[in-house]
TrEMBL record, chains A, B:
Keyword check for Signal: no
Pfam families attached to this UniProt entry: THF_DHG_CYH (PF00763), THF_DHG_CYH_C (PF02882)
Originating organism: Lactobacillus bombicola
Family indicated by similarity: Belongs to the tetrahydrofolate dehydrogenase/cyclohydrolase family.
CDD domains according to UniProt: NAD_bind_m-THF_DH_Cyclohyd (cd01080)
Function description: Catalyzes the oxidation of 5,10-methylenetetrahydrofolate to 5,10-methenyltetrahydrofolate and then the hydrolysis of 5,10-methenyltetrahydrofolate to 10-formyltetrahydrofolate.
GO molecular function: methenyltetrahydrofolate cyclohydrolase activity; methylenetetrahydrofolate dehydrogenase (NADP+) activity
Ranges in a coiled coil: none
Protein name: Bifunctional protein FolD
Domain Tetrahydrofolate dehydrogenase/cyclohydrolase NAD(P)-binding: 138-279
Assembly with partners or alone: Homodimer.
Swiss-Prot/TrEMBL catalytic activity: (6R)-5,10-methylene-5,6,7,8-tetrahydrofolate + NADP(+) = (6R)-5,10-methenyltetrahydrofolate + NADPH; (6R)-5,10-methenyltetrahydrofolate + H2O = (6R)-10-formyltetrahydrofolate + H(+)
Binding-site residues for NADP(+), renumbered to this chain: G164, R165, S166, I230
Keywords attached to this entry: Amino-acid biosynthesis, Histidine biosynthesis, Hydrolase, Methionine biosynthesis, Multifunctional enzyme, NADP, One-carbon metabolism, Oxidoreductase, Purine biosynthesis
Length: 282, 282
């Protein structure tokens, strides 16, 4: 039976450390300030916003949510971003996904001040990441690396297979894993025969968002399985991995919930604090 | 026996088309202007500079080489870059590699005006590429895609295995291949058992710079083999692939010389012209 990679536990440990840093910053007159823009009424988004705010409050980060109407125009969004860019007390700006179809997300993201780009989605921060300069790190990828490190799992020389090529998870994780000297394969919706690749993975990361995608036949004995999927079934969430049948076969596995989810939220707060420290020369 | 992917022939075809574009631009008073900075006396660099200049002249691009002493300081290099950034007639700036050890290449590259960054090595242009915005494209990756397209080889759904994770070839090619819907694996010096991966490649791209690295046992029957390696043996050059023994087994293969090399130089000129056109609103 696999050892559980307990993301919730690590998130708690890291949040406690982060709170101490924030306490120190506050003593020096620095209040980390995080602005989140949410457009429309996506139910999952509201849940994420709530869990972010809860953790931010616990750590001592000021989080302000800007709730925009689902009919918000591109111009209105850009104008809000410009305002937040110019407000010196704001350290981090994030656009909660998904956004309605009238929004040109790439244009909006590229207008965020790179110094306030907590999600590492502006072109210059994406480029820096690929060049080994961790000006800011995408939260999920950062959380995955922290989790592997916590359990003393070395990625060097390992075959890391990533399912998903999003800007938020798959691509930045590929960058960080290459930097860790892993051999990296990126699979996606156009990949023929997923199992052919997943069976070769020493470390398998599924960020497909497809319930039960990964069955026990698709993983190698003793592999390490990281489940980034968050799929809702009623009030419950479950991952991309058929946990019950995969867990007995592998050496390590993340649960869902309690795995990468809480680590992602905590990592995001770390980025806010990182940007606040840099801004204030600390 | 494999069909030859004739990079030299395609480079000639594309150079002829490019010359027509440049002739048109000149009629409108636009003279594409390319500045190359070379530091020190690397023999290969001098050969590349010569072949660039020859093609630039043929196409009608003005190329000016700045030859700096091998003892050039970082400050001198940065000052030259600043000058070239400010000179409005300069459309493209490139630093010829390798540079001497006293030079901080990343710092120098990041100071190049992204509007003049022909090699796509500034952070914002690297980020743009990963986001699907081809503001400028790295020459080798651009050449490889052009070659596959010319021979009507579709990368979608194929397993593309890239050996090498450099900023110049491996990483940008991974970005472009993911965009083409290929499943992408990136191998490098820390990969254990290269053959295990190369044997699975539908399209194998070797950018290792290691003579004879790829033997016939390492490739799948009917694979497509792209050899980016340029290894010097006296006055001759040869690739990473044991061409004689690999060619009979695969469906397509690039020769060295006459494959990716000439396409890279031609693609670089395309980027200079692209930047000159954009600068002049054309």
């Amino acid at each position: 039976m696999a050892q559980l990679l307990d993301g919730q536990k690590l998130a708690n440990i890291r949040a406690t450390k982060l709170k101490k840093q924030v306490d120190e910053l506050k003593k020096q007159g620095v209040q980390p300030f995080f602005s989140v823009i949410n457009i429309g009424d996506d139910i999952s988004s509201k849940i994420y916003l709530k869990s972010k705010k809860k953790l931010a409050t616990k750590i001592g980060i000021k989080q302000k949510n800007f709730q925009l109407d689902s009919a918000t125009s591109q111009a209105e969004l850009l104008s809000l971003i410009a305002r937040l860019n110019s407000e010196s007390q704001v350290n981090g700006i994030m656009i909660q996904l998904p956004v309605p179809s009238q929004i040109n997300l790439n244009e909006a993201l590229s207008l965020i001040d790179p110094e306030k780009d907590v999600d590492c989605l502006t072109p210059s921060n994406v480029g820096r990441l690929w060049q080994g300069n961790h000006f800011v790190e995408p939260a999920t990828a950062h959380g995955i690396l922290a989790l592997l490190k916590h359990y003393q799992i070395d990625s060097s020389g390992k075959h890391v297979v990533i399912i998903g090529r999003s800007s938020i998870v798959g691509k930045p994780l590929a960058a960080l894993m290459l930097e860790q000297d892993a051999t990296v394969s990126v699979l996606h919706t156009k990949t023929n025969n997923l199992a052919k690749y997943t069976k070769e993975a020493d470390i398998l990361v599924s960020a497909a968002g497809q319930l039960g995608l990964i069955t026990e036949k698709m993983v190698k004995d003793n592999a390490i399985v990281i489940d980034v999927g968050i799929n809702r079934i009623g009030n419950q969430i479950a991952g991309d991995v058929d946990f019950q049948n995969v867990a007995p076969k592998v050496s390590y596995i993340t649960p869902v919930p309690g795995g990468i989810g809480p680590l992602t939220v905590e990592s995001l707060m770390e980025q806010v604090v990182k940007l606040a420290r840099r801004k204030n020369g600390r």
